[in-house]
Amino acid sequence: MSTWPTKPATSDKFPSDVRGTAFAKGYSGTVYLDRLSKRWHIKLSPRRENDFNKRDRVPPVWISSGTAHPSDGSKMSIALVWSLAGELESLTCITDRNAPGYADFLRDCVELDQPDARPDAAASWLEQVKPSVDKAYAQAKRPVGSPLYRSGRAVSYLLEYNNGKEGMTYTVRVFGAPR
Asked: What would the pLDDT profile of 75-90 be if each residue is shown by its tens digit?
């Protein structure tokens, strides 16, 4: 992650091989994820094992996801990754800019309650970085991501891009990383 840009940049400037690690031993995120999915009416799929293509060195994980359509022509999604031991490694939230409450949804996502979490600081970071990402996207007219925000073992970033017919989209990813 030392090669991560320190200001908003086009996505080609970001490392492509970022993998999450467990936020903490024994932390599954169940209570937080139940609250998030209920608040935004996103029904998560049952966990299923993903062994990728078995030929690489990426260990198998549990995955789950879900999507809601808060209004006609908009959607919000959550994608999750856990280690096989059941420890949460990654949370990705995706929302269309035209989805009602999209900014609150993104804020709720960065306020993950992992050990050593600082939800208020994460929400403040998102509020501060979003306008600079918006501005960089408006200039570049291609996917733009934010600098990283780090809180304990949690690392977050915001990505903005045009998703074709769905329009402008934001992705916020929170993943575990060594200190």
From this structure: 999 999 999 999 999 9
Query: How many Cβ atoms from other residues are within 10 Å of residue 105's Cβ?
Result: 24
Q: Give the CB-side neighbour count of residue 123, counting CA atoms within 13 A.
A: 11
The reply to whether the predicted model has a pTM over 0.90 is: yes
CA distances, 115 to each of 97, 129, 154 (Å): 30, 23, 9
One-letter-per-residue 3-state SS of 118-175: CHHHHHHHHHHHHHHHHHHHHHHCCCEECCCEEECCEEEEEEEEECHHHCEEEEEEEE
**Kind of pairing between the strands at 149-151 and 154-162:** antiparallel
User: Under 8 Å CB-to-CB from 163, ≥6 apart: which residues?
Assistant: 96, 169
- pLDDT at residue number 163: 83
Judge contact between 90 and 109, C-beta under 8 A.
no
Picking from 162, 163, 159, the residue whose alpha carbon sits closest to that of residue 172 is 159
Q: List all residues 6 or more positions away from 130 whose beta carbon is below 8 Å from its beta carbon.
A: 103, 106, 158
Q: Which residues of the chain carry a pLDDT beneath 50?
A: none
Distances (CA, A) of 84 to 22, 59, 112, 153, 173: 10, 9, 20, 19, 20
